[in-house]
Design brief:
Layout: H1 18-27, E1 34-39, H2 44-55, E2 59-64, H3 68-81, E3 85-89, H4 97-107, E4 111-117, H5 132-158, E5 163-168, H6 181-200, E6 206-211, E7 216-217, H7 220-228, H8 231-234, E8 238-239, H9 240-252, E9 257-258, H10 262-273, H11 276-287
Helix pairs in contact: 2-3, 2-9, 5-6
The structure holds NADP nicotinamide-adenine-dinucleotide phosphate.
The site of NADP nicotinamide-adenine-dinucleotide phosphate has 29 residues, from helix 2.
């Protein structure tokens, strides 16, 4: 079975020799292992983040919807990088699911030193199209699930010498985007939540970062969406491993906002300088091709 589309070099050629890593892993008890927990790690940016962390010798808890993909990712990460990988399958939008994930970590003595809120969904189409269920479900996974996970894991993260929260926003966090209105609003929430939380936690060991990638080549739907807006969409495309490298480097450096790609950083700067009415006209015009989607 194809487990990953990412072409990462083998761990053997990386920072730590595999034997050394193995010995270290064997010598550690479950109780004193510290993990990076990544939601939505079975594909796309989440899977790339898992590879990037494992490549740096970080042990992982990977979380995604039930199915075959997650155990395949777990197996690949363990074999390739010789790190500890725990897998937890759940639909995080179900009532009590974030708390159950936290309890599972506590019961198994899995200490989390970095919480990566990556699981999320996108959407295109005019607001008036489609039913309410999908709209509320988008808001649930993109906003409420990260808030719940931060709430539950905060005391554990506070107890570490150094710890991290990485929330995944988007370039759409910076500007309103008509025909992606709930998506962009949810990602603005993620950005502002992250920035305020960072300020509140400035005297604790926790560094809060927000990753704001542009169009990233993950699933087929994303590729199609990026291409549907023409050259303006494809010009900014990046691969998931590129995004993940920038994200993990930024998170470990304690950066507040991580925007992978110089073109993306330039665009964010320009959007701050322009009158709001111009930017919304620009994004509205750009995504109007998607207005008939449900
Ligand atoms: N791709 C882009 O262009 C782009 C740009 C900016 C920001 N982002 C953000 O980056 C994040 C990842 O996007 P992506 O494109 O990599 O997405 P993706 O390829 O569709 O992967 C989404 C991941 O989230 C998991 N997931 C979805 N709903 C879940 C739920 N209810 N409970 C548990 N896990 C769930 C999926 O599990 P299964 O695989 O089992 O379905 C999958 O592992 C999202 O927050 C997205 O908004 C993406």
């Amino acid at each position: 079975m194809k487990t990953s589309e990412f072409d990462f070099p083998d761990a053997i050629s990386l920072q730590r020799p595999a034997d050394d890593l193995l010995r270290k892993a064997e010598g550690r008890s479950r109780a004193n292992t510290e993990y990076v927990l990544i939601t939505g790690a079975s594909s796309g940016i989440g899977e790339a983040l898992a590879h990037e962390c494992a490549q740096r010798g970080l042990d992982l808890i990977v979380v995604a919807l039930p199915g075959e993909k997650l155990s395949a990712v777990q197996e690949t990460l363990e074999r390739k990088y010789r790190v500890r990988v725990q897998a937890y399958e759940t639909d995080l939008t179900q009532p009590g699911a974030p708390e159950a994930l936290y309890q599972w970590c506590v019961e198994n003595e899995f200490t989390v030193k970095a919480l990566v809120n990556n699981a999320g969904v996108g959407h295109q189409g005019a607001f008036e199209n489609g039913g309410i269920t999908n709209k509320l479900s988008l808001l649930q996974i993109n906003m409420l699930v990260p808030v719940s996970l931060v709430h539950h894991f905060l005391p554990m993260l506070k107890g570490r010498k150094e710890s991290f929260i990485l929330n995944v926003g988007s370039m759409a966090s910076f500007v309103p985007v008509p025909y992606k209105c709930l998506y962009s609003a949810s990602k603005t929430f993620v950005l502002n939540f992250s920035r305020s939380l960072r300020f509140e936690l400035k005297d604790t060991p926790i560094k809060v970062s927000c990753l704001c990638p542009g169009p990233t080549l993950t699933n087929a739907q994303n590729r199609q969406n990026a291409r549907s807006v023409g050259r303006r969409g494809t010009l900014l495309e990046m691969s998931a491993p590129e995004v993940a490298k920038s994200a993990v480097t930024g998170m470990l450096a304690g950066k507040e906002i991580i925007i992978p790609g110089w073109k993306h950083r330039f665009l964010e700067f320009v959007s701050r300088c322009l009158p709001a009415i111009w930017t919304i006209r620009y994004t509205g015009n750009m995504f109007s091709v998607a207005k008939h989607k449900a």
